[in-house]
Amino acid sequence: MTRLTGSALRVMIFIGENDVWHHRPLYTEIVHRARAAGLAGASVFRGIEGFGASSLIHTSRLLSLSEDLPVAIVLVDTEERVRAFLPQLDELVGEGLVILDDCEVVRYTGRDAESGKTGREGKK
Description:
Blueprint: E1 6-16, E2 20-21, E3 24-25, H1 26-36, E4 41-46, E5 49-50, E6 58-59, E7 70-77, H2 79-92, E8 97-105
Antiparallel strand pairs: 1-7, 1-8, 2-3, 4-7, 5-6
């Protein structure tokens, strides 16, 4: 299991829900590549409204415009691992926004692969 505490780097990638990479959703490709690269974690969030460089508003409130909602992918790991992953993002993200933030990891606990229990179970 990956252990991560203290100083880290957060990457946020903003793309469209319909963006693809070789007939596969782009957000899926990014998450799978992040996992293959050994990054500590990745999450994808679907937005309900937003606009980007084109200034075209995409919203879930109007059916005609809800076809390409904003998507944010968040990755967190050490600065070294994140910076090593950036060339892949450069290859994948043709349109969108990629930002980096310094952050501090206070707690990062996964499940024990054998028991399925989290790190909190069994503690008193």
